[in-house]
Design brief:
With about 170 residues, this protein is α/β, with parallel strands linked by helices. Helices cover about 30% and strands about 30% of the residues. Helix 3 (about 110-120) links the parallel strand 7 and strand 8 (about 125-130). The two termini are about 15 Å apart.
C-alpha cells in the first residue's frame, strides 16, 4: 500500500479534504487526527488536535508557555509525545490512518515522527496532509518512493475527497 500525502498552500482546504474523506467512510476503523483553529474575536489564537475517536487536545496557543514555538504559537510537544502512540497506534492496525498534518508543530515530536514512520514502513493505509515546504521529516515523507503526493488547490479541493476514496479502493 502506498501512502497519499496532500499538500498545498495554507488555508486551501487540506483539512477539509481529510474531514470529508472521514465522513464518507463511516464503516471503517479510522485512526489519526485533524487540526482545528482556535479563534477568539475572529483572531486565530491557536490550534486544537481532534482525534477521530472524539478526543480533543490543545496543540498550540499564543498564550501557551512553551520553549517550543512556531511563529507566535507555543507548542505542547509533551502532549504530542504522550498522545502520538495512542492516536497513531499500529497494533492492532486501523482500516485507515488519516493525519492532518505532517507540519512544523507535529514534527517537533520525536514520538509523532516515529509513529508516522512506523505506519509508512508497515505499508498501512495512510492519507495525510503535509506542509508544502519544510525539511526534516516533512521532506523525508514527501520524498519516499512509496508515497504519492497530490496538491490541493481551490480548483480541485471539492472533488478530491471522492478521488482520495477511489485511490484507496474502498468505494
Amino acid at each position: 500500500m502506498r501512502a497519499l500525502l496532500l499538500t498545498g498552500l495554507p488555508g486551501v482546504g487540506k483539512t477539509t479534504v481529510i474531514r470529508a474523506v472521514a465522513d464518507r467512510l463511516p464503516k471503517l476503523t479510522l485512526r489519526g487526527f485533524y487540526t482545528s483553529e482556535i479563534r477568539e474575536g475572529g483572531i486565530r489564537k491557536g490550534f486544537q488536535l481532534l482525534s477521530f475517536e472524539g478526543e480533543e487536545y490543545l496543540l498550540a496557543h499564543v498564550d501557551m508557555d512553551s520553549s517550543q514555538r512556531v511563529s507566535k504559537y507555543g507548542v505542547d510537544v509533551a502532549m504530542l509525545e504522550g498522545q502520538s502512540g495512542q492516536l497513531l497506534n499500529a497494533d492492532p492496525p486501523a482500516d485507515l490512518y488519516l493525519v492532518d498534518e505532517i507540519g512544523k508543530m507535529e514534527c517537533m515530536s520525536a514520538g509523532f515522527i516515529s509513529a508516522m514512520r512506523g505506519i509508512m514502513d508497515a505499508g498501512l493505509p495512510l492519507v495525510a496532509t503535509v506542509a508544502m515546504r519544510g525539511g526534516g521529516f516533512i521532506a523525508e515523507a514527501k520524498g519516499r518512493p512509496d508515497v504519492d503526493v497530490w496538491e490541493v488547490t481551490r480548483d480541485n479541493r471539492d472533488v478530491l475527497p471522492e478521488q482520495v476514496i477511489e485511490w484507496l479502493g474502498v468505494v
